[in-house]
Amino acid sequence: MNKENKLVPGLPSGFEDRWDKKLLLKKKLLKAIENNFIKFGADALETPSFEISENIGSFLAEDDSNPMSDIFSFQDGEKSITLRYDLSSPLARFVAQNNQELPSIYKRYAIQNVFRNEKAGNGRYREFMQADFDIVGNVNPAQANAELCNLISSTLSDCGLNKDQFTINVSNRKIVQGLINELKISEEKQIKVIRAIDKLDKPGFGLKGVEDLLKKERKDQSGAITKGADLSGDQAQQILNFLKIKDLKKLKETLKNPLSQEGIKELEDVFEVLGYGSNLNQVKTNFTIVRGLAYYSDFIVETNLNFKVTNNKGKEVDIGSICSGGAYAKLISRFRGVDIPGTGISFGVDRLLFALMQLDQIKVEDQKPVLVCVMDQKYLKNYYELADLLRDNNINAEVFLNTKKNLGKQLDLANKRQLTIAVICGENEFNDNTVTIKNLKGVKGENNQTIPKADLINEIKKLI
User: Fold this and answer.
1) Which residues pair with 131 in a beta bridge?
2) 346 plus 394 within the same structural domain
3) What range does the domain containing 241 cover?
């Protein structure tokens, strides 16, 4: 291949390599999340990356004329298949397919990548990892939804966050649905109304942005126009008045329609159960969250961070919810003959990682190997014996892989890799049955010690 035709290394927009500290922190978060999922009683489930398109549907797209615009779909023979865009739709398909074999109350967790064909940036990716916990079956909704809040609080605490660094916001979709019904908003406009409300706290929106989306159209700073729900002035104003209410008691006095009252009562029941535990103060009402996905039916939850997050240019950004979800009454019942309610949450692992990388409070342990240096090729067998001794005692170890490099070059590479310890054995050490340990992080001139080989394990454990 000539120079002009050489490939340029790079990634498509919205995809990212993760390595070094970022990957170590991600693995720490995943361990904390999975441990909590298991602690709260869920079984693991893994589903394929692809699903039959019609089985998982499309609940993301805001462009009604192109409902599959936000997902990756491909033709597979006579069928269309889609890369999963969340873990809830595959769960619905799995439960419908296997419901006779599953317990009547099925608690499952899944930690897998999902794919969305949307604009990337500020902690948003086109391929990212979600960690989901769901409860499927006929349960007491207040107990199940309170348990989700308890799980969020426990998990984020175990991830290294203080309780004042995140807030769990809850609402009930029946509250706003009751108002929508009362205002006689037509069915074809309702999803636009829901999505408009859901954008209230997004950057650049606020009440004025929502008002524009409730009415004819909204023009953003770039000049792009988004078609609105085309509500009347009175309809839009009553929704805006609703969005200004923050207190559950006041809301109960304001919205008198039966469906809204039902949603308010269900929310009160969740707080009653939360009061039995230690997380009541972590959970707040926020009636402006409605969740844009159409399959949510009543309880909804979004978890937001209470500290500033910046992008690569140092500009403060809103990364949105780092754990969200809710109850879905009809997601599984889309499949013929199966009608099972469910409720669940999803941690945006990579979005959470994006934010936590900016905090110094979360420490990660990088178990770097001990480097066994090669002083003379004739002792190669002995170096591997040393490496085996270390590994057999649960100490990560490796033998330097180039017998032609001198000790200086070997230690240069060790320092570049930020290794902590090197074991050095030449002819003198082998003759005396000793080893020299070099503490690569120690004070120069005081970081070498030659010890009996029998003391090697104990001395290294003191340093790692």
Assistant:
1) 111, 347
2) no
3) 20-356
Instruction: Give tens-digit pLDDT for 278-330.
Output: 999 999 999 988 876 678 899 999 999 999 899 888 888 888 899 999 999 88
Per-residue pLDDT, 383: 98
Beta bridge partners of 112: 130
- On whether the pTM is more than 0.85, the answer is yes
Residues 54 and 189 in one domain: yes
Residue (of 33, 4, 14) closest to 322 by Cα position = 33
What contacts 24+ positions apart, CB below 8 Å, involve 31-35? 32/155, 32/158, 32/159, 32/160, 33/111, 33/131, 33/155, 33/159, 33/347, 33/349, 34/109, 34/111, 34/131, 35/158
Domain stop point among 329, 356, 383: 356
Phi, psi of 51 (to 5 degrees): -130, 155
Cα 385 from Cα 119, distance rounded (Å)? 53
Q: 217-219 and 79-83: which strand pairing?
A: unpaired
